[in-house]
Amino acid sequence: MTTESSVPYYETFSPTQGARAPRAWFRSTAPQLSLNGPWKFRLSARADVAEDLAREEFDDAAWDELVVPSLWQMAGYGTPAYTNIKYPFPVDPPRVPDENPTGDYRQTFEVPEDWHGLTTVLRFDGIDSCARVWLNGKLIGTTSGSRLPSEFDVTSLLRYGASNTIAVRVHQWSSGSYLEDQDMWWMSGIFRDVTLLARPEASVDDFFVHADYDPQSHSGILRVDTDVAARVIVPELGVDIAAGETVTLGEVEPWSAELPRLYRGELRTEAESISISVGFRRVEVVDGIITVNGRRVLFRGVNRHEFHPETGRTLDEATMLRDVLLMKQHNINAVRTSHYPPHPRFLDLCDEYGLWVIDECDLETHGFFDHWEALSNAVNPVDDPSWRPELVARMERMVERDKNHPSIIIWSLGNECGPGSNLSAMARWARERDGSRLLHYERDWSCRDVDIYSRMYATHAEVDEIGRHVEPALDDSELDARRRRMPFILCEYAHAMGNGPGGLSEYQELFEKYPRCQGGFVWEWIDHGLAQRAADGSDFFAYGGDFGEPLHDGNFVADGLVFPNRVPSPGLLEFKKVIEPVRITPVAGGSVRISNVYDFRDLSHIEFLWQLEEEGESVARGTLAVPPLRAGESTTIPLPSGFPTVSRETWLTIRAVLLEEASWAPVGHEIANGQFLVLAPLASVAQRTAVAPRRRDGAVILGDATFDAVTGGLVAFAGVSIHGPRLDLWRAPIDNDRGFAGNPVEPGWRDIGLDRLTHRVDGVGIEGDTWVVRTRVAPAATALGFSTTYRWRATEDAVELTVEILPEGEWSQVLPRLGLRMGLPAVFHRVDWFGRGPGEAYADSRRAAYVGRFSATVDDLQTPYVFPQENGNRTEVRWATLTDPNGAGLRVSGDPTFELTARRWTTEALDRAKHTNELVATDTIWVNLDSAQNGLGSASCGPGVLPPYQLRATPTSFKLTFSALT
Question: Regarding beta strands 488-493 and 517-522, do their DSSP bridges make them parallel or antiparallel, or are they unpaired?
Answer without folding.
Answer: parallel
